Amino acid sequence: MTDRKPAPSPLVKICGLTDPVNAAACARAGADMIGLVFYPKSPRHVEPSRAKAVVNALPTHIPAWGVFVNEHPDTIMETVRICGLKGIQLHGQEPSDLITALKKQHLTVTKAVFASRSPGLETIDTVYSTADFFLVECGQGQLPGGNARTWDYRQVRKTAREHPVILAGGLSCENIDQALAQAEPTGVDVSSGVESSPGIKNIDKVAELIRRVKQYPVKSFSSCTATSPPTRS
Questions:
Q1: Cα(123)–Cα(41) distance, rounded to whole angstroms?
Q2: Quick one: which of 170, 177, 182 has its CA closest to 211?
Q3: pLDDT in tens, the chain (233 residues)
Q4: Helix or strand or coil: residue 34?
Q5: Most buried in the list 11, 107, 111, 139, measured by CB within 10 Å?
C-alpha cells in the first residue's frame, strides 16, 4: 500500500501589517506570507523603515510581499532593497513589462485584477500572463484595494481552475468557508476581516481563519510554484 500525499491547502496571505510584534504573531499563527502596503492613501500604509522592522521580525521561511499601486520601478526596487521583500503585488494599471523586469530580480510577482473594473479578468491571458499569481477582488470602493467589500466569489471560479488565483475582498472567519467553496482559489488574501484596528490584526481571528483555510484542499489550479512561496534569505 503506497502512501498518499495530502492535498495541498490554499495559501494564506495576511496583508496590511504595520507592527513587527503583530506580524510575528501572524507568522506563528500559520500565515504563508505577509503583506506590506506602500500605497500612501491606504490606512495601512507603512514607510520603508517601519516595513524593514516588520520583515526583520518574521521567521526566515515567511516571505514579505510589498503592495504597490502604479509606482515607479526604481522606487519599487529601492523599497525591495531596504526592506528585504521577496514578492511584489501590483495593484494598479501597471504595464506587463514591469512584471518581466521584477521577475528578473528573482521576485515573486502578483498582479491584481478585478471582477467589476479594469484591469479585468480577461487581462490574465491577454496582458499579464507572466505573473506568478493573480489576486482577484471585486474592484468596488474608493481605494484600489482593501475596501472590505464582500462579493460574488463564484465569478472567479472558472479563472481559478486555469490560473493561480489569490482570492481577496471582504474575507473573514464568518464567510471564508463559503468563499473557498465558491471560488476554489490557490490562496486567499485577508486584511480588514481579521483586524482589531487598521494595520493591527486580531491574532485569535487570524488563527481561526487560517485553521479553516488549511482544512480546505486546493481543488483547482495547483503547481509547485503556486503552493510554495519563496522564503527569505
A1: 26
A2: 177
A3: 445 555 689 999 999 999 999 999 999 999 999 999 999 999 999 999 999 999 999 999 999 999 999 999 999 999 999 999 999 999 999 999 999 999 999 999 999 999 989 999 999 999 999 999 999 998 765 655 555 667 899 999 999 999 999 999 999 999 999 999 999 999 999 999 999 999 999 999 999 999 999 999 876 554 434 445 655 55
A4: strand
A5: 111
Residue 179's H or E segment, with its range, is: helix 176-183
Residue 149, SS3 per DSSP = coil
Opening angle at CA 201, ends 23 and 112, nearest 5 = 80
The three three-digit cell numbers of residue 102, written as one number: 521584477
Domain ranges across the chain: 11-219
Q: Kind and range of the H or E element at 31?
A: none
Dihedral, 135, 184, 34, 169 alpha carbons, nearest 10: 60
Q: Which CATH architecture has domain 11-219?
A: Alpha-Beta Barrel (3.20)
DSSP state string for 48-98: HHHHHHHHHTS-TTS-EEEEESS--HHHHHHHHHHHT--EEEE-S---HHH
**Beta partners for residue 11, in sequence order:** 187
- Cα(12)–Cα(123) distance, integer angstroms: 24
Omega of the bond leading into 20 within 30 degrees of 0 (cis): no
Give the cell for residue 117: 473594473
